[in-house]
Queue: 3 jobs
Job 1
Amino acid sequence: MDTDNDNFISHNKTELNRKVSTSGRSISIEDWSDIESIISSYSSIFQNQYSLCRSFDISDRKSALIYWSEFASQRALKLINFFQEIDEFENLNSDDRFTLIKYNLLSLYLIQKCLNYNPLTGTFINRKNEDVLKRRQFFALCYGTSGIRESFMSLIRSFSKVTEQDSILINLLLVVLLFSKGLSMNETEPELNDELA
């Protein structure tokens, strides 16, 4: 059993107990159970997320893009696996599930990255210095000086500050925003078929 993951779950439950007991408002047992289920699902799916961070080839733009597409696909699949653990999502018709994932996944990925961000170092947790340098080289190789990396990091910093990197809040935001039609602000996003979505 992964003791780091056990500590993460234990910390989340302790934090959740503290917030509920000090909020002055009670939370229903059903809501409490739903929150714990979300936290547990997220923890179990993302407990080995750093195994995805293998060394990558940045010798040329093509190699870097191939690696990045594989990495991004693996991360997207983990988020989709997390969403599939949510009964309300699984109960939607397949077209609505596809639409919500297609149009919301990029925004949700950005939010999820906040859980791994270290605001003191400006890097992501559990990354070696050489890995950080390689990732910066990757962005320079693929995007040049377009500012994509800087924009991405600025969004991560802002969102991390606003949420105070509260893992419970971020987990709940992921679920709420998954069901938010129009999150992508894409005018071509189709209407959902299920009125519950």
Job 2
Amino acid sequence: MNQEYSRSTRAISRLIPQEISGPDVHALSPFSLAEDDLGQSELICAGLEELSRHLKRLDEDYQTGQLDCLETRARSVVMLADQLGLRRVGQVAADVVYCIDDPHEAALAATLSRLMRLITQALDHAAGPVSAF
């Protein structure tokens, strides 16, 4: 009744999803604005603040199952992303709306997760390097 136990020494890979940031995200950085464009920085900052509020509430709406609020918020993100020039964020936010209209839980979770990653990366990039503060 001897049993041999073999241990697998395979490493577990940790997947960290990241989106490739395009030229639309680089336009948000206040460090890339020319001196004559500084008047637009207030509009960009206000848009980014609104985007950060939407980011927080997107997760809350999804966690509480309020799909009607989630759809309204995703539509708002589409319009806001268009104003800020964040084409990819707008496209993925529209995909979230499609996933809500055609209920598929896994697709909605994956697409919403991607949208939240894109918004987070855009906000991180717009804030600039920590050493700049």
Job 3
Amino acid sequence: MTRRAMVTRLNQIDGHLRSVLNLPRPAKATTLEQAIANSAATTEEVLFGDDGEGIALMPAVAQRLLMASLQAQVEARLISGDDSGATARSVIDSIRRLKAAPSLQALERQICAELCHTIGFSSAVLSSIAPDKFIPVTSHGTRGTGKPVPRNAAAAEQDCLRLRRIGHAGGRELPATDGFREILGAADYLVAPIVVESKAVALVHMSRARGAPSPTATSTPWDCCSRCTHSPTSGC
């Protein structure tokens, strides 16, 4: 996507989101940097406004627009080539290097740490996927890694796997899973699949973004290249 097309996309999403939430609309951005700043200001206002309601009480259409805005902000930063975009790209590259890494556990910790320190979340956890449960492997900013969470008790995570896209748990439409809510220390959170060759091999949970763009996607977050042949437990 070109810079001009991304400016248009950010302006449209930001305008729709502010309209749905009855927020005043700023002048349309004419540069990519301005569009990113406008969108970031909107998401920060929505997530951390004075009313304290956060995303849990938003109408479903506003939640979807918020997710789209966060995704577009990440893509825009990658296009703009600024430091935040470069670091966001390094998170994705880290996942793809897991198999060759001398210390898999170290890189897993790095992923969660970068999601918090660079992307802007306060807590993150990476979980492997077993036939009957989700197994937290490593985390950052959480209350420990927690215990395995039965899949039949995790509607949000099952929905994330089925749709192959990021989901918001803890809103009106989809309840947060107790096990992950306790690990993250948050009433609501985002959950995204790590996909290798059209197969989800792990889940990443993130909560409480602090205003920085979040690593969200509309279909297959962190989707690895089609040539990947790594095992599901090794990443890409």
